[in-house]
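EI: anyone free to look at a 237-residue chain?
SC: sure, send it
EI:
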Amino acid sequence: MLRIFHVRRVLLVGLLGLLVSLPASDAAQQLAKKPAQKPFTLTLTSVKVKATKPGGGPWDTIGGLPDLVVRIVLTDAARHKQLQALYRERDPLQTRLSALDDLKKQEVLLQKLKPNDPQRRGLEATVKEKRQTIRPLNAQETARLKELQPLIEKLYRDLVIHTGEASNTLEAVFDTGSLPVAVGDELTITVTDHDFFGHDEVGFLQCKLTAEQLKQDELDLAFGQVISLKLAVKPNR
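SC: here you go
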C-alpha cells in the first residue's frame, strides 16, 4: 500500500510540474479544450422594452423605435484571463498577417503603374520599407494562428452572448447563443439601443444565479426600461 501511494504521489507531482512549466498560452489552450462541465445552460430567447426612454422621450430623435442589442457576460475571472492570454498571443500574429496582405496588394498595384506614374516613387519606397520590416510568419506561427481562432471562439461562446441588432422594434426574439452556468454564477446583462452617433442604455443588470432560479424552465427578468428579458433554463444531463 505504501508503494502504491508513493507512485501516485510521484505521478501527481510530475503532472503538476508539467502544468506549471507550460507557457501561459498552452495552459490556456488545455483548459479551453476541456472546461469543467456546468450543470445548466441558459439560452437567450427574447427581450421586450418600454416605448420611451426613462424621461419619457423617444428612443430616436425622429421618433423611431430602438435598435436593440443584448449582451450577457458570465463572470468567470479565470476563464476571462485565459481568453485575454489567447488574444495576446493571436493579435501580433494576426497584425503581421494583415500587414503582409496589405503589402501584397501594394506590390500588385506597383506592377500595374507605368514607369512615369507620379505615384510610383512613393509606393516603391513604401513597399521597400515594408519588405524590410515585416517578418513573414513561419510554418509554426501559421499553424498556431489557425489553432488559436477556434480556441478563442469556443472560450468566448462560453462566456458571452452578444446578439445582432434587432432594428426599429420594442420586441425581439433571439437564437444566438447559450451560456453554461451553475448556482452562484454572476451575469452582467446590458440592453442597448444602437444609434449611428452613439448607443443609449435601455437596461443594465448584474445578478447572481440562485438554486431557485435554475430550478425553473425560464427566467423572466425586468430592469431599467426592459419589461422582459427571457432566458430558457436547461439542465445538462
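EI: The first helix runs from residue 2 to 21.
SC: 👍
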